[in-house]
Amino acid sequence: MPARRPPPGCRCPRRLSGQGEVFKAVANIDVGPVRRVFAPWLDPKAKPFIEFRNVTKKFGTFTAVDDLSLTIYEREFFALLGPSGCGKTTMMRMIAGFEDPTVGDVLLEGQPLAGVPPYRRPTNMMFQSYALFPHMTVETNIAFGLKQDGMPKAEIADRVAEMLKLVKLEPFAKRKPHQLSGGQRQRVALARSLAKKPKVLLLDEPLGALDRKLREETQFELTDLQQDLGMTFVIVTHDQEEAMTMADRIAVMDHGRIVQVATPSEIYEQPNSRYVADFVGDINIIEGKVERCADGHVTLNTPHGTIEAAYEGDIAKGSDAWFAIRPEKMRLTLDEPAEAHRNCIAGEVWDIGYLGDMSIYHVHLGDGVTLKSAQANTTRLLQRPISWDDRVWLSFDADAGIVLTR
Ligand SMILES: Nc1ncnc2c1ncn2[C@@H]1O[C@H](COP(=O)(O)OP(=O)(O)OP(=O)(O)O)[C@@H](O)[C@H]1O
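^ Those are the sequences you sent over. The predicted structure of the assembly is below.
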């Protein structure tokens, strides 16, 4: 098993002692006495690497990408996340040069890419299907693009050897794709994409063909590789866990627009809308009306009682607002909590989803609303105290969830 990395956005101690010098150079952001993070987007002096400036892409009358602006920084692992058809692949294809914006500019290192054909761009795109040549061996597959570019034979041999080592495929150099596992084929495709040493690697659902376990392992390999190479990776995925595991930042997209760009933990803990909250991970959303908003708190009147939540900002009394809280942040008890007049909701256990390490309790509130509470299975199944049809209390702290206004 690969060693678990620090969470994205916290690429710190391990990388900064040793090869991590590169990160010091690009992002000297101090966030405390011990920790420095890779966060060029917080550095006003950081230069954009890839830029979308008011880009619209239309196919006929259909708008696939809608007046979108975005900055990606050098050495970033950036994920485009969103439902099918939201425009992720179209954005990647505009970086690679397979599509041109209808309006607006895509820039690389400050230079507009308009008119630059794909083969002249320092980008390479790896597709989900891998598109390996079945009749060629692993090494000839990796060498293919280099040969086409007219690289001298000896250099090609060196580069292929380097790539085989990088993706740990040296023993398989003479095999053909059908003699490899799915994960090995994925690594050949990766080696082939990296062979020309592009500045930007574009990965379109790169792990879609792998089973879950291999996918998880490969995610870590890919992020380690990206860090070691110091390259910029842009990945398209509709798998939010994949984006969370690998990316420094995630752009959540909806209908050709970006709804939020932030680090995985910000996207998860501070979604800016119900759309993002709901798209990334499991969440309970409770609708209410603002009763009071002052002193860093909002009091919400909801059909399930009063919720008092931490909130920095101002919302007018009487406005609609939503309290969003992750299932793992909901306590579940059989006894009524002491402060049952607020942040406590009574219900009945309707269903229990057993996931092995944890169980998801679906709690019915009576008026058709169901909330979820995730409980770690620290005791064996037979010993667990809360079961189907039990009357229970869900409770939470004021800062356990987030108040959303849209
Ligand atoms: N060449 C094209 N002609 C017409 N419409 C297109 C073309 N390419 C993409 N589209 C449309 O643009 C929209 C965005 O497509 P895109 O492939 O970027 O979505 P996506 O977010 O990558 O989806 P998926 O996750 O399914 O790959 C879709 O509605 C798609 O049908």
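Residues 285-404 form a domain with the OB fold (Dihydrolipoamide Acetyltransferase, E2P) fold (CATH 2.40.50.140). Residues 59, 62, 64, 82, 84-90, 236, 238 surround adenosine-5'-triphosphate (CB under 6 Å).

Shout if you want it in another format.
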